[in-house]
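Could someone model nicotinamide-adenine-dinucleotide with this protein?
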Amino acid sequence: MKKNILITGGAGFIGSHVVRLFVNKYPQYNIFNLDALTYAGNLENLTDMSDKENYTFLKGDITNIDFVNSIFAKFNFDGVIHLAAESHVDRSITNPMEFINTNIVGTVVLLNAAKENWKNDFSNKLFYHISTDEVYGSLGETGFFKETTNYDPQSPYSASKASSDHLVRAYNNTYKLPIVISNCSNNYGSHQFPEKLIPLSINNIKNNKPIPIYGKGDNIRDWLFVEDHANAIDVIFHKGKNGETYNIGGINEWTNLDLIHKLCEVMDKKLGREPETSKKLITFVTDRAGHDKRYAIDASKLTKELGWKPSLQFEEGIEKTVDWYLNNEDWVKNIVSGDYAKYYESMYKNR
Ligand code: NAD
Ligand code: DAU
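Reply:
Sure, complex below.
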C-alpha cells in the first residue's frame, strides 16, 4: 500500500536508523524526514539516503505552527513517527526551557496538525510517538517498568517526555486521533552524538582522555542496540493497536562501571593496547543532579502481542559500535571540532 510517512528527528541518532530502515524496506512508501538540524541533527548520518527516490528531507522546526501545517497540507501524510526531541538529560538540567519548548510544545503542534488535516477521515492514519523509559522514574534493586507502571519522571527531560506522552493520549481520548506510544530503554550503536555515555567514552578512550563516571558508577541502565529499536518501531507502526503503549528494552542491565570496564576491554583489543590499559582512564566525577538509580524494562507485551525481541547480544553490539566509531573518524572529528569542545568544557570542567 502506498503511504506518505512523516518521520520527525530523522537526522538524529535513532531517527536516522528509522529513516534508513523504512526507506530501504518500503520502496512503496514516501518517507519525509522533518528535522531542524539542531546540534544533534546531522545530515552526515544519512548520506546513503540522499539519492533515494522515496526519501525527502524537510528542514524545519516542529514548534513552527505555520510550517508544520503547510507540510501536512502539501504532502497529506498517512502516518507520523515522531522522534524529534531534545534528548540529553544533562542539557535538560542546565537548560530546561528548550526541552519544554521542543518536547512538549512541538509535540502539540504536530498533534494539532494531524488532527486538523485528518479530521474528515482518521481511518488508516496513525500518530506514533516515540518516548522513553525515563517517564517511569527510577527503580530500586528489583522490579521492572511495565506499561501499567505509574509515571514518576525525575529530570526536566523525562518530565517533558512524560508530558508529551500525556498529551498524545489526551488527543486519542478527546479527539479520537489514532495513536500508539512506545517507551524504550537506553540505545547504543552507530551515529550517536558523543555527549552520551558510550560514544563519549569511546572518543575519550581513543584519545587517552579521562573517562568521566558520575558518582560511584553504580547506576544501572538497560541497553538496546539501536537497530533493534528501529525494528521494534517498524513492528509497532504496522501492527500496534490504536491507543496502546509498548515498552521496548534490551533485557541487558549493566552498571555504568561494569559497562565501561567492558568497553575498555574491547577497545584495548581493537587498538592493540595491553589489557587493562584503558581502565586507567576512568575518573569518578561529581554525580548528575537527581541521577536516576536504575532503569529496567519489561518488554513482554511487545514480544507476546507483536512478536518482537532483541536480535543482538550486547557483546556483539558493542563490538559493532566500537568498530563503527573507529572506522568513521571523520564523522566524529566533524562533531568534536565544532561547538562540542565548548559543551565539554562547560559540562565537565568543574565536576
Ligand atoms: P538525538 O538528540 O540524537 O536526535 C534528535 C533529533 O531531533 C535531531 O536530529 C534534532 O535535530 C531533531 N530536533 C530537535 N529539536 C527539533 C525541533 N524543534 N524540530 C525539528 N527537529 C528537532 O535523539 P535520539 O537519541 O535519537 O532520540 C530520538 C527520540 O527517541 C527522542 O524522542 C528520545 O526522547 C527518544 N528516546 C531516545 C533514547 C536513547 O537512548 N537515545 C531511548 C528512548 C527514547
Ligand atoms: O533510558 C532512555 C534514555 O537514555 C533516553 O530517553 C535519553 O534520551 C538518553 O540520553 C539516555 O539517557 P541516560 O541519561 O541514561 O543516558 P546517558 O548516556 O547520558 O547516561 C547513561 C548513564 O551514564 C547515566 O547513568 C549517566 C552516566 N554518565 C553519563 C555521561 C554522559 C556518566 O557516568 N558519565 C557521563 O559522562
